[in-house]
Automatic annotation (TrEMBL):
Lineage of the organism: Eukaryota, Fungi, Dikarya, Ascomycota, Pezizomycotina
Origin species: Cladophialophora chaetospira
Name of one Pfam family that matches: p450
Entry superkingdom: Eukaryota
Residues annotated as transmembrane: 6-27
Pathway: Secondary metabolite biosynthesis
Listed name of the protein: Cytochrome P450
Annotated positions binding heme: 451
Length: 534
């Protein structure tokens, strides 16, 4: 009885606290749901918001179907305008889906909004803190200014012979499959190529992952963060020791740029007396995490574009596009395909003189963009609303998702949007309507936070097409029982669709939440295999 008397006040306090919390949460629930009453969105449920609609749409698709295509599918199903809302609270953030280039321009170009915190939660978990893709404000400006020289068009043009060397290895590997008739996973091969290329650009070394097992490439593929950190730190220290001992000027590889900035700030530009172990922890963290970021972003997205370009050009309906590419390569490099490498080494500028090939890369990325961007508004930022068709739309409380996929599917911006049409990106298309809106093609995003790797990625994919298009024919070789998405969302009869590669495979609720956020990562576009023949 005594225990009961002592517990009664505690229980009463707990009950009162619970009632207070319940009342507060109920008010918050009502206010949140009420916000969507006059906003453009699919049918809205007081209890579920749009969670039920998203769940039902997900059941219509393969389980690993990418959310940028899923949300576009929902918008099309409910005849949504180019900007609409999805209320997924309290399970997830609520989204403002932006499928409009003019609104996207307001958000990233006219008054660039900061990236949504989910970038730090998801990408930061893989790359670490203080990365150029997650940093904001002065720190971002500082990091970007350091890295810009290493990704300038002028510098990258000097690396074309390096790209050619790695591209030839890639072509030789495919030639082996052509000889054997074996089916091969094209993206896995392409990923080794792009990892070697980004290794040269970022670390200034040949990782040689196309020819032999490479520890760094292996740990990136398996996302073994601690091993990545250890190996990259070893490379930074070795590079520091090498440049210090020889007193040689550094290159514009990212590692050398960081080391030079460190010496200029911490040691003095002329200092050559310090040991290789004098790199302080703060510098090592910044250099290591930014190198990880560049390695991750520089190989994954480009390899998926290579895979999709090869798949699209292998489709019978795109045979004329392939014919036109081959004719362009004949005109620029000569009719003997085996002489293309020699011609490129003699005049690397030829790689930038390929308007049809460039158009093929751009059209591939329009159909299957490797990523998107999400932004958020913050108090006192000059942009709190956007305008579409004279309607003012609020940004507060939303994860603002500029979906490159959604913009690329709009028939009013891209006539016959599911067709692979090179002329969209030529100066004088046969139909003026094919000329896109100036801000509609944005797979690398636009504005000050646009991707550093635009020029490098375009060069790599152009090079691969030059080396392969005239020497091989490709045949998509999916197993017949492979999962299929709706035809409009893939190639090979819907079997080649974009997926969420890094989604956790656990309980439904956990998988849903993790997968929903993974669009921040560059998706792996799973072209399972191609069969190649000469």
């Amino acid at each position: 009885m005594l225990v009961s008397n002592y517990n009664a006040p505690l229980l009463a306090a707990l009950a009162l606290s619970f009632v207070g919390w319940a009342v507060s949460f109920s008010i918050k629930w009502r206010r949140h749901r009420a916000k969507y009453k006059h906003l453009p969105c699919p049918p809205h449920d007081f209890w579920w918001g749009h969670l039920k609609i998203v769940g039902m749409a997900k059941q219509e698709m393969p389980p690993d179907f990418h959310y940028h295509a899923l949300f576009y599918h929902i918008g099309a199903k409910y005849n949504m305008p180019p900007v609409f809302y999805l209320d997924l609270w309290p399970v997830s953030n609520s989204f403002m889906m932006v499928h409009d280039p003019e609104v996207a321009s307001q958000i990233t170009q006219a008054k660039s909004l900061p990236k949504h915190p989910i970038n730090e939660h998801v990408l930061g978990a893989m790359t670490g803190s203080r990365s150029v893709v997650t940093a904001e404000g002065p720190e971002w400006k500082f990091l970007r200014s350091i890295l810009n020289p290493g990704f300038s068009s002028q510098y990258l043009s000097t690396l074309i012979p390096v790209l050619v060397r790695h591209g030839v290895i890639f072509k030789d590997r495919i030639s082996q499959f052509a000889s054997s008739g074996e089916v091969f996973p094209v993206q896995r091969l392409a990923m080794s190529l792009t990892f070697d290329v980004i290794g040269e650009v970022v670390l200034g070394v040949d990782l040689n992952s196309q020819r032999q097992s490479n520890k760094l490439a292996k740990h990136f593929a398996k996302a073994v963060e601690c091993q990545q950190d250890l190996l990259i730190e070893q490379m930074i220290r070795a590079r520091h020791a090498e440049t210090k001992s020889t007193n040689a000027p550094g290159t514009k590889a990212a590692v050398d740029i960081f080391l030079q900035a460190y010496r200029d700030e911490k040691l003095g530009a002329s200092s050559t007396t310090k040991s290789a172990d004098d790199l302080d922890p703060e510098f090592m963290l910044i250099a290591r995490n930014n190198i990880k970021t560049l390695l991750l972003g520089g190989h994954d997205t480009t390899s998926s574009t290579i895979a999709y370009a090869m798949a699209l050009l292998s489709e019978p309906e795109n045979a004329d596009s392939l014919r036109r590419l081959r004719a362009e390569h004949d005109a620029v490099f000569g009719p003997d395909a085996s002489q293309a490498v020699e011609a490129l080494l003699a005049d690397p500028r030829l790689l930038n003189n390929l308007p049809l090939t460039t158009a093929a890369v751009k059209e591939t990325m329009r159909l299957f963009p490797p990523g998107s961007t999400t932004r958020t508004t913050v108090p006192n930022h000059p942009l709190q609303t956007v305008t579409l068709n004279n309607q003012t739309l609020p940004l507060e409380g939303q994860q603002i998702w500029i979906s490159h996929y959604g913009i690329g599917q709009r028939g009013d911006l891209w006539p016959q949007p599911r067709k692979f049409i090179l002329d969209r990106f030529l100066p004088n298309p046969y139909d003026a309507k094919l000329t896109p809106h100036r801000d509609a093609w944005r797979p690398f995003e636009k504005g000050p936070r646009g991707c550093l790797g635009l020029e490098l990625a375009m060069m790599e994919v152009r090079l691969v097409l030059v080396l392969l298009c005239r020497e091989f024919d490709f045949e998509i070789a999916y197993p017949e029982d492979a999962p299929r998405a709706p035809l409009e969302h893939g190639v090979a009869g819907g079997r080649g669709y974009q997926i969420v590669e890094f989604a956790a495979k656990r309980t439904f609720s956990f998988e849903f939440l993790r997968a929903l956020y993974q669009f921040q990562l560059a998706p792996i576009d799973e072209i399972l295999s191609l069969k190649v023949q000469r």
